[in-house]
């Protein structure tokens, strides 16, 4: 439930040591003088007290990146790594395939750095996500929603466009720079903010880049940290992780797995993958807004559900949850009662 009026102001509780977490920005491995790109990273880590649980939960607000998700980090980091290595020339076209937040992130970064860019998207990509691409001036190629072995698939199309136009395909679904950017950036940043006082990391998994990079970094700092990847019940990442039979790919939660293990998932650093059903992810997303005043997307709702379970089971837990994107993109879906009811989800 909601806190009593004034209870936050009066509270002296703090996630880490009783001292305030650092509010100054943690150094970026990709420093830049650009006034917009320098706003990527350095996102806040805020207390997220769940009543009725013993453990502490802190939420990392990745929606405070300029285009509203942690994907701004990989767009900037991958492009910088490729450019520094001589694999991306100034007049090369940057190409990426994305149904979601990566599209806007790549559009922003290429806009600021002066690269031409092409984004391929599958049919059904939300108007809001396409809006970033259009308004920031990237070229958009909308592809039919077909199986991944069909040559019209949005990833296959991105690969083809990159070769036809002598471009560079970022390929977040297999590029090792995706987890590497989080290993160099998101991991150290949250570790420093939490003063190393972390027992659990809970992070949604799509490409697995975010959880993998963070997991590798925190595991190198302390072998005691337990890293939990979060998946939708019917998106089958946990089936890959545990070697069980996958079911049909069928989730309404944007951002979570695409059905199987990917090279960007460094399972060796991840301790556990927990699956959350779509309804629970959405109910938790709505509670985050209604009870905590925090607007998050459905993948973060799924992670908050897992964090709540851990905090209930382990009163000493000090949990960091990665909040991947904000709720503003989901007003006409998760936060819309009729959208929820049409799909048979509770609207509590
Ligand atoms: N949540 C949202 C909203 C996302 O857009 C993504 C990216 N697909 C994820 C979670 C998963 O992040 P990652 O690809 O790094 O595993």
UniProtKB/TrEMBL annotation:
<protein>
    <submittedName>
        <fullName>Cystathionine beta-synthase</fullName>
    </submittedName>
</protein>
<dbReference type="InterPro" id="IPR001926">
    <property type="entry name" value="TrpB-like_PALP"/>
</dbReference>
<dbReference type="InterPro" id="IPR050214">
    <property type="entry name" value="Cys_Synth/Cystath_Beta-Synth"/>
</dbReference>
<dbReference type="GO" id="GO:0006535">
    <property type="term" value="P:cysteine biosynthetic process from serine"/>
</dbReference>
<dbReference type="InterPro" id="IPR001216">
    <property type="entry name" value="P-phosphate_BS"/>
</dbReference>
<dbReference type="Pfam" id="PF00291">
    <property type="entry name" value="PALP"/>
</dbReference>
<feature type="domain" description="Tryptophan synthase beta chain-like PALP">
    <location>
        <begin position="38"/>
        <end position="325"/>
    </location>
</feature>
<dbReference type="InterPro" id="IPR036052">
    <property type="entry name" value="TrpB-like_PALP_sf"/>
</dbReference>
<feature type="region of interest" description="Disordered">
    <location>
        <begin position="1"/>
        <end position="49"/>
    </location>
</feature>
